[in-house]
Here is the input.
Amino acid sequence: MSTLSYRTKIELGVTAVVVVVGLFFAILAWDINPKSHEIGPRAVPMFIAVTMILLGALISFVALRFNSIENGNGSDDDVYVEDDYGFADSNITRVFSVIGCGIVYIILFIGFGYFVATLGSLFLIMFAFGNRNPRTLILVPAIGTVVYQYVFMGLMGLHDPAGELLDVTALTNLISGN
Amino acid sequence: MLDLLGGFVHLFSDLEAVFFVFLAGLVGIVAGALPGLTAAAAIAMLLPLSFHLDALPALAFLYVIGKSGRYGGSIAAILFNTPGTAASAATMQDGYPMTVRGEAGKALKTATIASIIGDYIGEFILIFGAVLIASYTKTFGPTEYFAIYVMAFIVIGSVVGKSVIKGILSTLLGGFVALVGLDTITNAPRMTMGFNELDEGMALVPLLIGVFVISEVIIQAEKSAKDKLDGLGEIDIGNPDANHLTWAEFKRCFPIMIRSSFIGSFIGMMPGLGSSVACFVAYGEEKRRSKNPEEWGTGIVEGIAAPESSNNAVSGPSMIPLLTLGIPGSTVAAILIGVFLIHGIQVGPSIFDTPHSRQLIYALFAAGLLGIAVYGVMGYWGGPFIGRMISYLPPRMLYPFIFLTSIAASYSSRASILDVGIALIFGIVGYGMRRTEFSAAAFVIAFVLANNMEESFRQALLLSDDGILIFVKEPVALAFLVVGFGVMIFRSVSVMRHKRKYPDATPT
Here is the structure.
């Protein structure tokens, strides 16, 4: 594996992911009742899943075929890789912090409703983006949450369910005007 | 022409629609000028708002954002040396050097005029071309439609990204996700994994928000610690001579704008080939024709006129496949399909048959023409100001609100918290796709088309006495399939040749 370029390594990883996803899709498609039709509801999903597996394997084949190290174009360090390709400059902490804020939003939403979920996750995402000023971290989410509550629950009239752990809709309805 | 006049009457009799055209002009410019945020991302976030509007204001709002967003990308390209949208990548090459020389105002004015000319030419080609083509395509049945869908999948997958295989995989992924839910013919649930909420299928809004907005927020979160916008500090718009586009310069650029507009319009008609391709094709072609090609890239107005007129000319013609075949030629068109369906309008050639939908479409054309003028006026006099305002917005404050808006928009599409989870999942998927050169645009377009494709496939087989051979025996269907596979083979061969020539730089 040490003779593989960075791009080829990533492409092999892509193949693995695509093949696993394709297999997962094939299992889901296999569970579909084919009915009595000649071309039933299973046919197209199964075709897509199998084609994904084949094309996933083809990515590896082409990547290995054109692996620049095998073509004698230099060492791994010499290989030119386009900006933003691959995960070499990824900041995994930041990636998971954004997704984590979304997961916190869902948990708070179920437990405490829209208002608390918005307040909590806005605070967290601002922190994740590097805001450290305590005044900013308190005031901006508070004002922002009131605006979101008014726009989405008040003006747009969305369903504002009560939290399963704590119901604050009596208070938040004052903001949204419901 | 009378229909178009009727469209203007319809538009101006609906003041709400006119208001949303003006709002869209501003929203699109700002969204397009924000580095990283595309017009498609802005439309995805604002799509739930359109559910609360009548058909014309909703469609006009999103359609004009698509236009003004393309133009807005040029502001970021010229001032910040960062393309606000992929369509503006070519504009940077001459735009930013002009900013460095203190000619930002001239560069922005050139971009505005070029965008307006390109957009108007593209819009008129749409208006007069769509009806003509639709009169032919409305005779198509499920066999032809299946072939068209297959062609669209293959062509879009082949041309939309750097890799043919990954482009087609992107369409397959979008197609599979779209098939989750009740089967349209047998009404049996498929691939719902026990979630009753998925019986209705995956909603478009959380999927769009995931792949376009949340993935961008993740990327901006990665960048926020190390990057800052630069370039604006060097803007000098105080010198009228350096920031005024002279008549002589305009006369030099005008033929370039016209030629590039037709290049962009032609590319726009091809499903999947969007503004990002058009801008480089036009830039390359005009540089090739130029008597002084060595000056291109050093900061000349011609280098802005070509890509900007071309990328905006894509906007109108990219609607032709949508209105004549029901196939979206771009991400924005794919999103508009959802809006049409929400308001009970079936897109495709029959859209021109009923008086109601015909009137609506011509009013939408009128909104497009008005929207071009609106963003043109706003951009010509307000472009530098908008750019300056954006430079004052720190990403650490902006993107948290974009994230929260996208979460709220995901929830609002069906008032389901599951959709927020779906948006997050597709945020990770979109991030992975961007990092590995898969195409989010192909994914979304396939998602929108897949159910119709499967339905026409099964209907065609039910009508067929020859099984699957019907797609070969019908000449029109066969022609579309040949075109699709022909494009794929041609593109694969050209990618392979390029790979052999530059083995380190070209993907699979």
In short: The CA atoms of residues 154 and 173 of chain A lie 8 Å apart.
